[in-house]
Amino acid sequence: MQIRPMVWADMPDLVGTFDATWKVQEDPEGTVSRLSAAHFILHYLVGATRARIAVDGQDFLGVTLLAEGRGEPCFPQAQEELEQVDQQLSATTLGARTLDRARQWQLTEVKLEEKCGLAVPPQAELRLFLVSSRARGRGVGGALWRDNLEHLDQAGIERFYLHTDSSCDVGFYDHKGMERLAELKGRDHAAFAGRDSSDDPQFFEGIDDIFIYAGRVSDQLGRDGDHGGR
């Protein structure tokens, strides 16, 4: 296994892995689902200052996207690409509804950050930590985790945070001793967002719990047994 910088040509692997993990179930043909995956990947790339890929030969294994709060974005073209994807999603009824759900989720995360005091945030955010289902159990998540911690330590960054949800391995972060700053149960999403759940019952009834975790880089580096992954 090798961990290397992401290049733009890796985008299809990222989008395909995200799509396989979080499909839009109402889209049997898969077009809207893949566009939705592209929307999320591009959303995470906007502002990301470090992007690392785990590979085994030509096989994609996982990715981490980090925003350090300073420095230039890795992919300045991400914003324009995101706008183009959003236009394509908006062109159909299902696509427009899917985009509304994505933006609702992202606005909820921002509101949750504000509620738990991240208006003055830690110095870095791990925006995406994704391991392919084909690579689970091979130590890929642990290797990517250590790679980011070592980078943050060398950069003099003391603290970082991340968002996750109940569709992921939340226990990984508990095992790492990360501090859970915020938790929003799925049943509370609509009220928290000031929305009527009857506007989109399928979305709000099936929505995951979401969490914000934070930690000190030195504490994480000092822990033993780094393995696993999201």
SSE topology sketch:
Blueprint: E1 2-5, H1 11-21, H2 31-45, E2 50-56, E3 59-67, H3 78-90, H4 93-115, E4 124-131, H5 140-154, E5 159-165, H6 171-175, E6 179-184, H7 189-193, H8 201-206, E7 210-216, H9 217-222
Helix pairs in contact: 1-2, 2-3, 2-4, 3-4
In brief, what are we looking at here?
The protein has 230 residues and is of the alpha+beta class. The chain is 43% helix and 21% strand.
Order of helices and strands: EHHEEHHEHEHEHHEH
| Structural Rg | 17 Å
Oligomeric status of the shown chains?
A: single chain
Strand content: 15-25%
Distance between the termini: 17 Å
Secondary-structure-derived class: alpha+beta
Protein name: Putative acetyltransferase, GNAT family protein
GO molecular function: acyltransferase activity, transferring groups other than amino-acyl groups
Keywords: Transferase
Pfam family, one: Acetyltransf_1
Primary descriptors:
disordered C terminus; 7 strands; globular; 230 residues; 9 helices; alpha+beta; seven-stranded mixed β-sheet; Aminopeptidase
Task: Characterise this structure.
Strands 1-2-3-4-5-7-6 form a seven-stranded mixed sheet, sandwiched between helices. It is built from nine helices and seven strands, in the order βααββααβαβαβααβα. The chain has helices spanning 11-21, 31-45, 78-90, 93-115, 140-154, 171-175, 189-193, 201-206, 217-222; strands at 2-5, 50-56, 59-67, 124-131, 159-165, 179-184, 210-216. The protein has a single domain (2-226), classed as Gcn5-related N-acetyltransferase (GNAT) (Aminopeptidase, 3-Layer(aba) Sandwich). The protein has 230 residues and is an alpha+beta fold. β4 (124-131), α5 (140-154) and β5 form a beta-alpha-beta unit.
